[in-house]
Amino acid sequence: MRILKLKNNFNWKYITGEILLIFIGISLAIGFNNWNTSLKSTRQIDISITHIKEEIENNLKELKEARKVNQKILQAFSEHKKIYDGKTTDLITSPEHFAILQTKYPGFFRASDTLKLDSNLFHYSGSTSVNLELFELTEIAWETTRLVSITNEFKYECLYELESMYSLQRRVQNEIDKAAFALQKGNIKELMSILGFLVQLDHQLELNYATILKDIENCR
User: How far apart are CA 110 and CA 125, in angstroms?
Assistant: First the structure.
């Protein structure tokens, strides 16, 4: 009876080398994937910061342009208010003063009739006309950044500043909408009250814009 013996011909060095190569390959693949993901994340953050910065710069430009017009309206109302007849928006003043106001604030008060009260005092009947500068402050770049969760990569201090700034921006936009509604109703006194509050808010918003534009590169 013959007994067959099986010999173990495995090359353990070769097998160990193959396993090691596989392990190294997997490690390199994971490392490359992590690096690639990190690179994509960095690029997304860079793009988001660029878009937010551009959005803030555009909003700041809109804010400043509208403020010039709206402050002029407030000044015109303040000066005309001193010579309103007390019951309506008709004016009681001298022809010289009326001419100065018409030159300084063209189109604000449109006289339709004039009544002489004494030698240098006239009653001017008419109406007040306001060309309000309405504008819209956008937050598309910010909302897009939040939607794709890129804000998770922002530093906390920067994220807090951005949240606060856009919250204030919404308050300003809300006052703008109120001003438009007051103008639509023809309520001049309410409109001026809103514009006065709006001037305070948009100065504060301008400061927030300046701070963010200075610090936004440190959001990464």
Answer: 8
Condensed to tens digits (0 to 9), the pLDDT of residues 124-181 reads 999 888 888 888 899 999 898 888 788 888 888 888 999 999 999 999 999 999 998 9
List pLDDT tens digits, range 78-108.
Answer: 999 999 987 778 999 999 999 999 999 999 9
Quick one: tokens of 131? 């060309």
Name residues whose C-beta falls within 8 Å of residue 123's C-beta, 6 or more positions apart in sequence: 85, 90, 91, 92, 114, 115, 116, 117
Contact in structure between 54 and 141 (CB atoms under 8 Å): yes
**Tokens 């606060």 correspond to what residue?**
164
**Number of Cα atoms under 13 Å in the Cβ half of residue 110:** 6
For 90, 101, 180, the CA distances from 87, given in Å and listed in that order, are: 8, 20, 25
